[in-house]
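no rush on this but wanted to send it before i forget. theres a chain ive been looking at and ive put its sequence and its fold in token form underneath. please have a look and point out which stretches look like helix strand or loop to you. thanks a lot i owe you, the record is right below:
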Amino acid sequence: MRDIEKQWIRAAIINKDTKYFGYLVEEHQVTVRGYLRRLTKGSMALADDLAQETFLTAFRKISTYKNTGTFKSWLLAIAYHNFLQHIRKNSNNPHMNFPLDDYEAKKLSQNSDAIFNKIDIEKAFLYLKKNERSTLTLCYSYGMSHSEISKIMDMPLGTVKSHILRGKNALKKILNPVEEDILC
């Protein structure tokens, strides 16, 4: 962590200074929003709402930050928990499964081989379970260690490793369906 970031955190904790907390938001908002967009399967509006809630929660709880991990990890843990809370609150909402839009669903049903051969990594992530999406994003997009992910997601290290492995295997199947069929 940079020295300037430590000073901003200290000022935000000691003085509840919104100016310095604003610097922290500027520093980490791209990461938090990007992570939440991946979790929400690209729903920019929902991801931005959850990011805003994440920073509000972080500001209210800044005094609980113990400097045992990176500030970014602490923020991503808050973001993940806000995402889970949102899912729990809206579990009866049929739109919470983040389905494909009508055009994509129609295209997929008409010509699935062509679609799967052309699908990019972002679209492939849409097919992963939320824990697979989250662990893979934290690991490969943000360079977090398995231990950091374990803390962020509040789950055992072995479970994190399992989600990463299952997610990687699922991505391989999605991105190379013909190749996978040959190997089976």
